[in-house]
């Protein structure tokens, strides 16, 4: 039984009740959204310490943090530090994208301590099993997928919609195929002269998902890697296939969300979101950014958060964070912190703009505390209390009045002057 099957049978599960309370929505409403395919609760039956999270247009916009080692750097200890940082600063889900040594051990360690949904890309581990990707067998790939499911992974990114017919479309691009999973599959298909094994064996994939209530994150192997490639024929050909696969998964009671771009000019983001909603019948949209310019390396958490705010406002259900090191190297702990905070801001801003229930309550409480010069209350309400306190205490080191910040001082503090003005009237 999957959450989708329960919902279609009119059953409200404990996971649905938990999410409903967390979102401030009615359990029956959550059930209806899941039954319609517009909402998912990634909750593998083997992830025992999970606190369920709802992903869908009716819920607060969520953010995912990518961690994971590479063949060049990091190990289990480093990844667990990054995991703790991501969770501390508010990540709603975490993906382990490890591609180096000890992939299996790192994944197990993450699942054991993470109480939020955990996602993976099984193709990465499968690729590590062979010298050349074209040597990978279908059974090897599916053995890896089932092992991830058995260990408790809640959702997997699988690039099922990239077909042989799409490859020539991508070859016209400026940057070609920038998805690692997509590029690996494209080479596999070209070298073997066969169709995408995740597409031709999609029913086999769905059977695994049914057994563990493993949610599918249908990956965009042809996401644009630069503005010049945005909204092209390759991207939308794959998206149409993903819509077909979404409906096929629903028939088997498998929960699905669909992944999206990528690098997109700001003025094309709304169109892209609406196109996905149309082609995929409202399945939750999970987007990487989008990054709205190609020249922000070193600051791409900002580039991405700008696009992410617009995407979430237009209807995306989850944002995949981008860190300052995007395009430059594997992120460290501080990069994770900055990536999470930037995208929490983006998601929260969109929630306010969409008028989601209670979205602005924290902002209004913060404003009351700010006007009252109640610094401790402000720190409690901020997204990053540690950083705010560091700045505040640094400013106080010169013996400044603790009631006001160093920006204006006591003589020019507008909040203080206004309060005094109110006392005089």
CATH architectural designation of the largest domain: Alpha-Beta Barrel
Give the averaged pLDDT, no decimals. 95
- Helix/strand-derived class? alpha/beta
* CATH level 3 topology of the largest domain: TIM Barrel
Largest sheet: 8 strands, parallel, barrel
Oligomer: single chain
Strand content: 5-15%
Q: In the residues, how many domains can be counted? A: 2
Helix content: 40-55%
Number of strands: 10
- Low-pLDDT residue intervals, each spanning 5 or more residues: none
Which geometry do the CA atoms define? globular
How are the strands of the largest sheet arranged? 3-4-5-6-7-8-9-10
Give the helix tally: 20
Reading off the top of the CATH hierarchy, the class of the largest domain is best stated as Alpha Beta
Measured distance between first and last alpha carbons: 66 Å
Walk me through this protein's architecture.
The chain is of the alpha/beta class. The protein has two domains: 3-353, Radical SAM ThiC family, central domain (TIM Barrel, Alpha-Beta Barrel), CATH 3.20.20; 361-424, no CATH class. It is 50% helix and 9% strand. It has 20 helices and ten strands. It has helices spanning 3-8, 14-23, 27-35, 76-88, 103-113, 122-128, 138-151, 167-170, 180-192, 197-200, 202-212, 233-251, 269-279, 300-314, 333-353, 361-371, 375-381, 385-396, 409-412, 414-424; strands at 39-40, 55-56, 62-67, 93-96, 118-120, 155-158, 215-218, 256-260, 285-288, 318-320. It has an eight-stranded parallel β-barrel, surrounded by seven helices. Helix 2 crosses helix 3, helix 14 (300-314) runs parallel beside helix 15 (333-353) and helix 16 packs antiparallel against helix 17 (375-381). The radius of gyration is 23 Å and the shape is globular. The termini are far apart. The mean pLDDT is 95.
């Amino acid at each position: 039984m999957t959450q989708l099957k329960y919902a279609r049978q009119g059953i409200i599960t404990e996971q649905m009740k938990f999410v409903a309370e967390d979102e401030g929505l009615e359990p029956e409403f959550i059930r209806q959204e899941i039954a319609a395919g517009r909402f998912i609760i990634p909750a593998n039956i083997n992830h025992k310490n999970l606190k369920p999270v709802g992903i869908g247009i009716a819920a607060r916009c969520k953010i995912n943090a990518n961690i994971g080692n590479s063949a060049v750097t990091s190990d289990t200890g480093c990844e667990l530090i990054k995991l703790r940082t991501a969770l501390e600063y508010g990540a709603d889900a975490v993906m382990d994208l490890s591609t180096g040594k000890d992939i299996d051990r790192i994944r197990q360690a993450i699942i054991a301590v993470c109480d939020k949904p955990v996602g993976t890309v099984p193709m990465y581990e499968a690729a590590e099993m062979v010298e050349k990707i074209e040597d990978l067998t279908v059974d090897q790939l599916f053995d890896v997928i089932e092992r991830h499911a058995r260990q408790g992974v809640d959702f997997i990114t699988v690039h099922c919609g990239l077909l042989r017919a799409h490859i020539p479309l991508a070859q016209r691009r400026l940057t070609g195929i920038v998805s690692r999973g997509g590029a690996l599959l494209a080479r596999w298909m070209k070298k073997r002269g066969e169709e995408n094994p995740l597409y031709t064996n999609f029913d086999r994939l769905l059977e695994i998902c049914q057994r563990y209530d493993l949610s599918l994150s249908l990956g965009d192997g042809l996401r644009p890697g630069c503005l010049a490639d945005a909204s092209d024929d390759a991207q939308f050909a794959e998206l149409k296939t993903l819509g077909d696969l979404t409906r096929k998964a629903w028939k088997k009671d498998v929960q699905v969300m669909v992944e999206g771009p990528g690098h997109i000019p700001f003025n094309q983001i709304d169109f892209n979101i609406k196109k996905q909603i149309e082609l995929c019948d409202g399945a939750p949209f999970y987007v990487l950014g989008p990054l709205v310019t190609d020249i922000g390396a070193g600051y791409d958490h900002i580039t991405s958060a700008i696009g992410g705010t617009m995407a979430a406002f237009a209807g995306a259900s989850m944002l995949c964070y981008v860190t300052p090191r995007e395009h430059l190297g594997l992120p460290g702990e501080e990069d994770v912190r900055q990536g999470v905070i930037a995208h929490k801001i983006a998601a929260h801003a969109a929630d306010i703009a969409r008028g989601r229930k209670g979205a602005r309550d924290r902002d209004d409480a913060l404003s009351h505390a700010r006007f009252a010069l109640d610094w401790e209350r402000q720190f409690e309400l901020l997204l990053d209390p540690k950083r705010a306190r560091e700045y505040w205490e640094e400013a106080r080191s010169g013996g400044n009045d603790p009631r006001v910040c160093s920006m204006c001082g006591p003589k020019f503090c507008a909040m203080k002057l206004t309060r005094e003005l109110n006392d005089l009237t």
